[in-house]
Specification:
Number of domains: 5
Structural class: mainly alpha
CATH class of the largest domain: Mainly Alpha
Distance between the termini: 32 Å
Number of strands: 0
Shape: elongated
């Protein structure tokens, strides 16, 4: 069974749905070929061949009418109900037609051939509609070729069975064959859609939306992707019609009026062609589509027809050349090309797929046949072109087909990307929505007048959140609450005179300090507020520090000594245990003059944790390079590492050289080196990127992981930065190989993943982290949104999104990475790799550089009795 499954490219659990779809299409095509042969034979026995064009026109008109009804029903009924009802409707039609033929009703033959045209279009389309509802994108890529082979087999079988039965039951009674085939088809549809079908509830729109043919054409016109699909279908149909005409013309010229020889040749050619197509489809069809992908297989048929048309032009009226051209078309059109074209519909939204596909297959194909017929009439009757002239024109059509294929390939990937990344937009904030409504100002005024401090603060926050600071009244700067005044003086517009007045009148030191800082922002450097100098001797330290800060911001070169004297005075005045040192440390962050370095160094060693933390944070804002050697060692201390990183980030790229030396030095403290990538992540420089890329090959796993995350941040900050793709690809492959090894280890050691053993949890964690690292690295090679969306899809329990992510990566990844990355989304893809024994895996875990993995493995060996463990037989 495993060998058969491998030969057919099936995974476990896919046998039944794949077989049912295969059998369903076989029944549909066999039924169609039987009734098509019978209806044409019956029609030609009663009517002239010259009347067949009227039949083609009648079929086209009738298909248009039927499709308009079918599409409306498709938007109101579930697919299982619609398809089952349609098959039963055709069954009742067949019985009525059989009765009409039995009683020799004269119009029955004409109605029969028209009905056959509609029947053939709808039943084949419904099979692929069911397949699109049963298989996800990745399954469809593997199984559509196998399903398509059922159609080829059905065509061959239908013709042979029909020919054999005509002599026994007669042409009229062939209609009765539809009774068992259509009843079987109804049962298959019920099983497939009810047991294996899926729905996409997250998609916009609903299958219950009421759409007619006009609405569907509007939907197609509004989507470039759907327009390209329609263009492909139309061009393919027209080119195919011209090739059939060329083939028939050569056959007629080769055999003349010898009708029996023509019939034998055409029947034999079609039979052998169908068998060959079937073998091609079953043996290599699914693998071609899976391995080469839509982007390659879409080109196979036009390439084959281009070559075949060229050969026929060089060898006109040669039967072998015409047979080669027609054989290329027949072998690929209903096998690889059919499966590929069906794949194009898989990314289309479920809410419109059924209607769009019905209109495309039923209407566009028939319309294209009509256009092809008109083209042939114009070329032969109007312009008098012969076989060679028609062949040259067909080369032009094939060239247009190539262009459509290339554009469709781009849109196919773009559509998958959109399906994967489109998420509902985050709605505007509630406050913004509230305060942009009419009457908002009146509501805020009422809130501003409230005596409740919290209400007033909320109203100020709401106005600021809505972007309307001008709504905040100036009267709030004199509000009784210090908290309200503190917030108001930061946002309410005030003149220089108003600010100075508030400084004089304010009795809360915190608010007064804030007003002084506001005054500094308002004052011009060439016209400093001399009135603020009086606050340098204020009793409140916060007020003095605020005044100093204003002085520093407006200071000239000659006033630096004043700043130093002031700082020295504060240092002598304050007690070592004073809490006010924190305020001093905060102000030092705004003083970039070198005169503050000594005091800053002193506070970096302060015994009080809050003071020391503030001094670390202020060091980066002040930007003194002399402090860097004192900040870097703090990266090794877990208590201060986060603050030290923030301080070093504030220095900016000017300390890149120092950080690079420490990052590259293996003798440097490991914790210091591990923290440097977290700093470099905020330096969007090419030098930062190059340093981090080199760190991907460091021996320490945590350092590598942080380097990967830092590279991702830099990519988002500056997309223009260059990332060495060779280094990234090499590391992606290494991470994939390691992660896949841990997946195999988990599956081999714990087939059922039972119990909360430490080794199980550790292996799961390593797999999870390995996948994350891989997708973070892919974000450096691919559009970041594609990599992120693929990673999120991998974490979800939605097989459709996982399949979509895998298909996207299959189309955008470099060829050398596909075999490594795709197994992370599709574990089955790695099933063919060499499987390791339990003993080999345990021995490798015990020798792993990770001490935690070694300890967990030893613990698991002691607790669990595997059939084979290190040191045992």
């Amino acid at each position: 069974m495993d060998r058969l499954r491998s030969f057919l490219n099936l995974e476990r659990g896919e046998e039944l749905p794949a077989f049912l779809l295969f059998f369903y299409l076989t029944l549909a095509m066999a039924s169609y070929i039987v009734v098509k042969s019978a209806s044409k034979g019956l029609y030609l026995s009663r009517y002239s061949f010259a009347t067949l064009p009227y039949v083609y026109i009648g079929v086209a008109v009738l298909v248009g009418l039927v499709v308009s009804v079918y599409v409306r029903l498709a938007s109101r009924l579930s697919q299982v109900t619609l398809i089952s009802a349609t098959l039963l409707f055709f069954l009742s039609n067949a019985l009525l037609l059989w009765w009409g033929l039995r009683v020799r009703w004269s119009p029955a033959a004409a109605i029969y051939i028209l009905w056959t045209g509609v029947f053939g279009v709808i039943v084949a389309t419904q099979v692929w509609t069911v397949a699109n509802h049963v298989l996800d994108l990745r399954q469809a890529k593997r199984l559509f070729p196998l399903v398509a082979s059922g159609g080829i087999l059905g065509s061959a079988g239908g013709g042979l069975i029909g020919a054999a039965l005509v002599k026994r039951v007669g042409t009229d009674n062939l209609l009765l064959l539809l009774i068992p085939t259509l009843l079987l088809s109804v049962g298959i549809v019920q099983i497939l859609l009810r047991r294996f079908g899926f729905s996409r509830s997250s998609e916009k729109g609903s299958t219950e939306s009421k759409k007619g043919v006009k609405d569907v054409f509007h939907t197609i016109a509004s989507s470039r992707y759907l327009k390209l699909i329609v263009g492909l279908v139309a061009l393919s149909a027209i080119v195919g019609l011209v090739i059939n005409w060329q083939f028939d013309a050569v056959v007629q010229k080769s055999f003349g009026s010898r009708k029996d020889q023509i019939t034998i040749f055409l029947a034999s050619f079609q039979g052998f062609l169908s068998l060959f197509s079937f073998l091609v489809q079953v043996v290599v069809g699914s693998r071609i589509v899976e391995k080469l992908g839509v982007r390659v297989t879409l080109l196979m048929l036009p390439l084959a027809l281009l070559g075949g048309t060229g050969i026929l032009l060089l060898n006109p009226l040669r039967l072998w050349a015409a047979a080669l051209l027609r054989g290329s078309d027949g072998a690929l059109r209903y096998s690889v090309d059919k499966a590929t074209n069906e794949l194009l519909y898989v990314p289309v939204s479920q809410s419109v797929k059924a209607q769009v596909k019905a209109v495309t297959d039923m209407v566009v194909n028939r319309f294209a046949d009509g256009v092809g017929g008109i083209i042939l009439l114009v070329m032969t009757k109007v312009f008098g072109l012969g076989l060679s002239g028609v062949g040259l024109f067909n080369l032009v059509l094939i060239s247009l087909w190539f262009w459509a294929v290339l554009e469709t390939r781009k849109e196919y990937v773009a559509t998958i990307h959109r399906n994967l990344t489109d998420r509902p937009e985050i709605p505007p904030s509630t406050l913004r929505m509230l305060f942009e409504q009419p009457g908002s100002i009146a509501t805020l005024r009422t809130m501003f007048a409230s005596k409740d401090e919290e209400v007033v603060l909320y109203a100020m926050e709401a106005a600021g959140g809505a972007g309307h600071h001008e709504w905040i009244p100036a009267s709030l700067t004199t509000h009784p609450s210090p908290r309200v005044r503190l917030k108001a003086v930061e946002v309410v517009p005030m003149t220089e005179q108003e600010i100075l007045k508030r400084v004089q009148e304010e009795n809360d030191s915190t608010v007064r300090a804030s007003v002084i800082i506001r005054a500094c922002k308002v004052a011009q450097p060439q016209r400093p507020m001399s009135a603020l100098s009086q606050f340098l001797s204020a009793s409140d330290l916060r007020v003095r520090l605020s005044a100093l800060l204003c002085l520093v911001r407006q200071a000239r070169e000659g006033e630096k000594e004043t700043v130093k004297q002031f700082l020295d005075h504060i240092a002598d005045e304050l007690d070592a245990a004073s809490k006010e040192w924190k305020d001093v440390a905060e102000v030092l962050g705004e003083i970039s003059q070198s005169v503050a370095v000594d005091l800053h160094l002193r506070l970096l060693q302060h015994p009080d944790v809050t003071v020391r933390r503030q001094a670390i944070l202020s060091a980066g804002r002040a930007g003194h390079r002399e402090l860097v050697p004192f900040l870097v060692p703090l990266l090794a201390d877990r208590q201060w590492a986060a603050d030290a990183r923030l301080a070093l980030r504030d220095y900016g790229p000017r300390i890149l050289g120092s950080l690079a030396d420490m990052l590259k030095d293996p003798s440097e403290d490991l914790e210091v080196r591990r923290n440097i990538p977290l700093v470099l992540a905020y330096f969007p420089q090419q030098e930062s990127v190059d340093l981090l890329l080199d760190s991907l090959f460091d021996y320490d796993g945590l350092l590598r992981y942080r380097a990967i995350r830092a590279l991702g941040k830099l990519r988002l900050i500056d997309p223009e930065l260059r990332f060495d793709s060779a280094k990234v690809r090499l590391h992606v492959q290494e991470e994939c190989e390691t992660t896949l090894w841990f997946e195999q280890a988990l599956a081999s050691l714990y087939p059922k993943v039972e119990g909360p053993e430490l080794l199980v949890q550790l292996l799961k964690d390593k797999i999870s982290r390995g996948r994350e690292r891989v997708f973070r690295l892919l974000a450096l090679l691919l559009p970041a949104s594609a990599a992120c969306a693929s990673f999120l899809a991998m974490l979800e329990e939605d097989r459709l999104r996982k399949a979509t992510a895998a298909e996207l990566l299959d189309n955008v990844l470099p060829r050398g990475l596909k075999e490594w990355v795709l197994p992370l989304l599709e574990p089955k893809a790695g099933g063919g790799r060499h499987r390791l024994s339990v003993q080999t895996i345990l021995e490798a875990c015990l020798k792993n550089p990770d001490p935690i993995l070694r300890e967990c493995t030893a613990d698991a060996i002691a607790k669990r009795r595997w059939a084979e463990v290190p040191g045992r037989a």
